[in-house]
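Usage example:
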Amino acid sequence: MGEEINRWTAAGRKAAAVGKIAFRHQLAYKTDFAMRCFFLLFILFVFIQLWSTAYGGNFETVISGFTLKQIVWYLVFTEALTLAAPPLCARIEEEVKNGDVAIRLIRPQSYVGYHFSVFASEALTRFLVHLLVGSAITWPFVGPPAFGYGWFGLLALSAGALTITFLLLAIVGLCAFWVEETSGLYFVLQKLQFTIGGMLLPIDLMPEWLQRVCAWLPFQAALYFPARMAVHYDAALLAKHLAVQAAWIAVLAFAVGRIYRRGATKLHVNGG
Amino acid sequence: MLTAVNRIGANARYVWTCWKVNLASAMEYRLSFLLLAGMMFVNNFIWLFFWSLFFGRFPIVQGWELHDVMLLWAISAGGFGWAAMLFGNFPRIASIVATGQLDVYLSQPRPVLLSVLVSRCSVTAAGDFAFGVAVYLMVGDTSLTGALLFVLGLLISGLLFIAVMVIAGCSAFFIGNAEGMTQQLFNSFIALTTYPSDIFRGLAKLAIFTIVPAGFISYLPIGLLKSPEPGFAILATFVAFGLTLAGSLLFRLGLRKYASGNTIAMRS
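Running the assembly step on the lines above writes:
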């Protein structure tokens, strides 16, 4: 029992150290950060134009429970979460192609655990910066984000949301152990997140039948849950959403573990 | 005169050979090719799915309907598709210049920009092109006039993609490492060509018809296909060809400033 605890403590320390290095690594590439922020500003500007036109510029109109202000802020939150995710699939694919995976596999840290540490560190930093940058452009157009406890709901659900995003990306990325090229699969996953994940359109605005389909998929737990909770806080629903996220994390983590173990036995690497 | 004709003929044969080699190279990994192109095809359809949901809620937005946005995607993806299949290096000029990879093209007895552009074929772009044609066949006007207008739309769209990225890529000659900036411009330009031009107003609208001329692509479904406006069609054609010419002149100008270490190497 004591040994088991020591093992977990050591794993935690290693994960924290990797996360710290990943955080410092990001600070070293400020231009890259600025470029990504530029794209966020740009795409939010396009969304503001699109939705303002759709609502006819009317701030009072309510469509499926969303005013123009709520929908634009909802998009800020989904975009901040989406752009927070580092390119995990491309990284795994590159490691498999150039043989670096051989070095990762012999390190005294779980391969998936290593990538999760890097992902968590980068994603959390980016998410917070994106929230600030997104607010800077949205505030002047639609007003302040006065959502009260909504902010608490957003933050409470964002950790689970990013973990689910990591696991979905890991499933696609680990396919590189079989097919090497995963960009096509990644594009499809990304677009599923954009649409039935609720990134571009709140699920409430979708047809009834599609809402029922979305309820059985993990994508809404990664984007829709935190963003909707931010603009429509509901304590009872928050507990339910946290439970749904926990269930998806368990299912997807199991799938990632299985795929990784099977993939690692198939992998042949020269050099690295 | 005869020499000029000979030179054009030789260049045409060179381009044709490059395209054949690129195709053969892509076909070497047939499964991968089909998978990538197929995924891009699906990827674009998912975008149309989003738009169908959007227009399900808001049937008409500034005069645009789902049908118009589908044709917008057909023109944008189709135009990008042919451009990236035949001149696949156009989004990578800045990177090629900044990393000294231009050396290898300078040693070839062919126009440098042409050599750079035709030496790569984007595999995923085949899916974009197929998607564009498929959507046009689904919702477009398939009469002879309709087909000719659609082909003109594809030509304008593809040329604008190439021209804008060549001009942006040339910035690497003057400011050095411009990869990040051109990549962002590329992403933004593509995004702008897939949203109805009429959602923008004021300065934003002015910008998409001047600084970042994506409006000449995103207005094509209305100004060229739905209710053809000769003035817009002529202007868009003129802008597409004019910017292509400007891009090649700027590249030639930039070449005079080009310097690198010796990075001549075999390309695999």
